[in-house]
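S.,

Sequence below, as promised.
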Amino acid sequence: MNYWLIKSEPTNWSWLDQNKSKTTMWDGVRNYQARNNLIAMKINDLCFFYHSVKEKQIMGIVSVTKEHYPDPTDKTNKFVVVNVKVKKSFPIPITLEKIKTEKKLSHISLVKQSRLSVMPIDKKSWNIICKMGDL
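The prediction came back faster than expected:
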């Protein structure tokens, strides 16, 4: 199993929207590195669901339910989507500010390459973040 972080601007698609929908297609990625990360995702991989822009916090966890396929919103046919399903909410959302205070997380892409919308998370960092969020 692999671990990931996927970002969404809450005004476009929020954790509340994801919870209402349960399972959804993760579309709209238009960065090649993020696309390659979507391609690497496998069924049952887990992803942190992150509110970007103003909130900058991890809201919960989703799992991959369908591996990559062409993004129907992409007219160039260069980008892909995966389907994700709600697993659980964090009792306390984990802010980027809080993540940055944890020295053991200073190497993760969320800290080093903050604009990337889909990024891998190593297992050790995954566990630290889950503990920070009381999971």
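Helices lie at 15-21, 32-40, 96-101, 109-112, 123-132.

Coffee later?
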